[in-house]
């Protein structure tokens, strides 16, 4: 009896990491759904999960938008693209092959489907609030501005979206899931005591 093991997710790659120390991540030269994980000078080819691509500027796998890998501005015509750094409230306007940065107004995020800014709660995007500074106290926990029943837990600088149990919402003051529905953002706020 012979067992065959699939090793495609960790194939040794030809030397892109030679001379590197510690751990780093490099984009794959021909496939955006792969990246090279470098550790102490050795490189390993790693696949992003299905539906994700390797975002080299954020050094993480991000959700694929559209039918394929992210592309730069087309050489001709007009196009509107999501921010290549993954920031929800920014986008790129392409005019004749040139890139012009755009920014949504406060409370709006770029909607890839509509190719324009839309209310943040209607767009499936979360800005990465996590720090990559090792001096930052752990764990880091942040509210999800788009959905009060969710929060962001940072693990090694990577955002992980967590959901509160049914009937609870995330309280930004205590950084915990608490009983009750989401607070009304339009409700009057009591002034602080004098």
Keywords:
single chain; 194 residues; mainly beta; 3 domains; four-stranded antiparallel beta sheet; three-stranded antiparallel beta sheet; 0% helix; disordered N terminus
In short:
This protein is mostly beta strands and 194 residues long. The protein has no helices and 16 strands.
Task: Explain what the structure shows.
The chain has strands at residues 11-12, 23-27, 34-39, 42-47, 52-55, 60-63, 78-82, 90-95, 98-103, 108-111, 116-119, 140-143, 150-155, 158-163, 168-171, 176-179. The strands form six sheets. The protein has a four-stranded antiparallel beta sheet, with no helix packed on it. The protein starts with 10 loop residues before the first strand and ends in a 15-residue tail after the last strand. It has three domains: 8-63, no CATH class; 78-122, no CATH class; 140-179, no CATH class. It is built from no helices and 16 strands. By secondary structure, it is an all-beta fold. The model is unreliable at 1-14 (pLDDT under 50). A hairpin with a 7-residue loop joins strand 7 (78-82) and strand 8 (90-95).
């Amino acid at each position: 009896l012979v067992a065959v093991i699939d090793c495609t997710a960790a194939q040794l790659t030809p030397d892109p990491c030679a001379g590197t120390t510690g751990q780093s991540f490099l984009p794959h030269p021909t496939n955006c759904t792969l990246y090279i994980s470098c550790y102490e000078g050795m490189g390993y080819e790693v696949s992003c999960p299905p539906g994700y691509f390797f975002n080299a500027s954020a050094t993480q796998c991000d959700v694929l938008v559209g039918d394929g890998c992210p592309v730069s501005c087309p050489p001709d015509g007009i196009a509107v693209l999501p921010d290549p750094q993954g920031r929800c409230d920014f986008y790129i306007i392409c005019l004749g092959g040139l890139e012009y940065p755009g920014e949504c107004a406060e409370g709006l995020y770029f909607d890839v489907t509509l190719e324009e800014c839309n209310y943040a709660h209607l767009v499936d995007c979360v800005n990465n609030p996590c720090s990559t500074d090792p001096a930052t106290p752990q764990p880091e926990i942040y509210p999800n501005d788009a959905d009060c029943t969710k929060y962001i837990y940072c693990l090694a600088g990577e955002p992980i979206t967590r959901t509160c149990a049914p009937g609870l919402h995330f309280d930004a003051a205590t950084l915990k899931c608490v009983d009750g529905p989401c607070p009304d953002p339009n409700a009057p706020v009591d002034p602080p005591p004098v």
